[in-house]
Amino acid sequence: xxxxxxxxxxxxxxxxxxxxxxxxxxxxxxxxxxxxxxxxxxxxxxxxxxxxxxxxxxxxxxxxxxxxxxxxxxxxxxxxxxxxxxxxxxxxxxxxxxxxxxxxxxxxxxxxxxxxxxxxxxxxxxxxxxxxxxxxxxxxxxxxxxxxxxxxxxxxxxxxxxxxxxxxxxxxxxxxxxxxxxxxxxxxxxxxx
Length: 193
Prior knowledge:
With 193 residues, the protein is mainly α. The protein contains 9 helices and no strands.
């Protein structure tokens, strides 16, 4: 029997992430989430109102946790290593982050409200990375490129790799991320000279 409405939204988000991991994004429904969390579908509707809202909240949850973890790092090389490891983990076949994110991007092409939510999420991602880059080095990493622009370029690069990783058969994600690490390490070494 379903529990009364005493479950926290964060618990539902965790249950939703498990539903996606276990059964794939296409199987995420309010019914499957209600069964997983042992609550009524009405409880799910109360917290999220729509599947799209649920998907956005899952993405926000994953993103916030990642930036919180990365924001505490004060060493540039450690940040690059941990940030790329986090990005790589989001590209694995059992990861739902980019599948959800890209599904929402496609939805936003025809839905102004969704477009505004995705735009805000991307802005937060770029601002978080820009702030970390600035914290690690107050000067520009590359002469003539601001922290803000570098953050946009790096996030776009990671999202572009995600598209390839999700669509290209046998995409060498680990090798690509090793190459990115070398590229970013070179950037730090050049900056240090």
